[in-house]
Specification:
InterPro entries: Ptrans_KptA/Tpt1, RNA_2'-PTrans_C, RNA_2'-PTrans_KptA, RNA_2'-PTrans_N. With about 180 residues, the chain is α+β, with helices and mostly antiparallel strands. The chain has six helices and eleven strands. It has two domains: about 80 residues, Orthogonal Bundle (Arc Repressor Mutant, subunit A); about 80 residues, ADP-ribosylation fold.
Length: about 180
């Protein structure tokens, strides 16, 4: 499959598995899973012609591991980033002392005032390394990397989760825990 085709399918999967499953008439169970065969059938009748093997390729080659199959490969879900209500079933986890968040300069005034907020998503996403945060921040322009004192947040009672693809999740980060 061509790189651009893989990218387009990945973006479409992000839309339907994270935000708008109704776009193609699928439903997500309470944990975000949907049936692979139904997903393929709905995609093939409305938007993309894609085989099971091509879907596997998109999941396997996604550099951010945005999607995952269940153990027997019959269901698929987004690893995190949902704006629709799902429970990923992740247990609380102890974060490292510092995590990172990539953003752009135009948001810094708001972040200094209100901290980091999850906005329309279920969780705020934090990166384990600066390089990943740079990639995230670069999607909207010149990246600004914030260092988050997550160890202290955790000791202060904030809850963190680690998604299957290595993204750290929490509900918010007050400005007092952010190193600008």
């Amino acid at each position: 499959m061509k790189e651009q085709q893989t990218k387009n399918i990945s973006k479409f999967l992000s839309l339907v598995l994270r935000h708008q499953p109704e776009t193609i008439g699928i439903t997500l169970d309470p944990n975000g899973w949907t049936d692979v065969q139904e997903l393929l059938a709905k995609m093939n009748t409305r938007h993309y012609r894609i085989t099971r093997e091509q879907l596997q390729e998109v999941v396997d080659t996604n550099d951010k591991k945005r999607f995952a199959f269940n153990d027997d490969g019959t269901q698929i879900r987004a690893s995190q980033g949902h704006s629709v209500e799902v429970s990923l079933g992740l247990p609380p986890a102890t974060p490292p002392e510092y995590l990172y968040h990539g953003t752009v300069a135009k948001f810094l005034l708001s972040i200094r005032k209100d901290g980091l907020q999850k906005m329309s998503r279920q969780h705020l996403h934090l990166s384990r390394d600066r390089e990943t945060a740079v990639n995230v921040g670069s999607r909207r322009g010149a990246p600004v990397i914030l260092t988050i004192h997550t160890g202290q947040m955790h000791r202060d009672g904030f809850v963190f989760y680690l998604s299957d693809n290595g993204v750290w999740l929490t509900d918010s980060v007050p400005a007092s825990y952010i190193q600008f």
